[in-house]
Amino acid sequence: MAVTIDGEATAQSGLPGHALPGTETIISFLSPYDPIRRHIAEAVRETAGGRMGSRLLSEARDADVVYVPPTNSAFWRITKICTTPPFFVPAFAARPLVHGLPPSREECPLPVETAGGYFSYDDSSRSIALSDSQLCADVRHRGFRTVLVLAGPDDSRTVTCQ
Question: Strands (DSSP E) along the chain, which ranges?
């Protein structure tokens, strides 16, 4: 990652082989006031993951839980390690993720040696396509009432279950 950041810093600064003017280390880049760091942060906000993170931060506060349908491939493929996306929702939104395991057993098998205790969950914990009424029946059974449906980087809605 430092190599990628150094490469971006070099490109932005226009100085060959140096992340920042007058330094050969990334230390000064780590300052929150660094213009190159600010540029990278702005660029990340425009990615699919950045847009979904912003939605989670702003919209999940009005929901009890979050549901990411299997059709939101931007979410389920946000990293090369298929077991990491389920951690993003609790980390960004401080909300549980229902049906929060990756949808595809073929693309993301969860053998016993998988870190994080995933092997303890069965296929009913995987993301599946649900209608609003099916989703509401499921979350009401779990004691929740409102669901943020994160359908895509630019598509989300809150469902209130009666």
Answer: 65-67, 97-98, 146-152, 155-160
Lowest-pLDDT choice from 8-12, 65-69, 154-158: 8-12
**C-alpha span between 104 and 86 (Å, rounded):** 13
Tell whether 81 and 100 lie within a shared domain: yes
SS3 67: strand
Return left, alpha or beta for 99; rule: phi > 0 is left, psi -120 to 50 is alpha, else beta. Answer: left
Q: Could you tell me if 91 and 110 lie in one domain?
A: yes
To the nearest 10°, the Cα dihedral for 141, 146, 152, 154? 180
pTM score of the predicted model = 0.76
Q: Closest by alpha carbon to 86, among 70, 72, 97?
A: 97
- For 138, the domain range is 48-160
Q: Are residues 23 and 90 in the same domain?
A: no
Reduced to 3 DSSP states, what percent helix, strand and coil does the chain have, rounded to the nearest 5?
Answer: 45, 15, 40
Q: Which two tokens stand for residue 76?
A: 């389920």
Please write the tens of the pLDDT for every residue from 121-132.
888 999 999 999
- Supply the DSSP symbol for 106: T
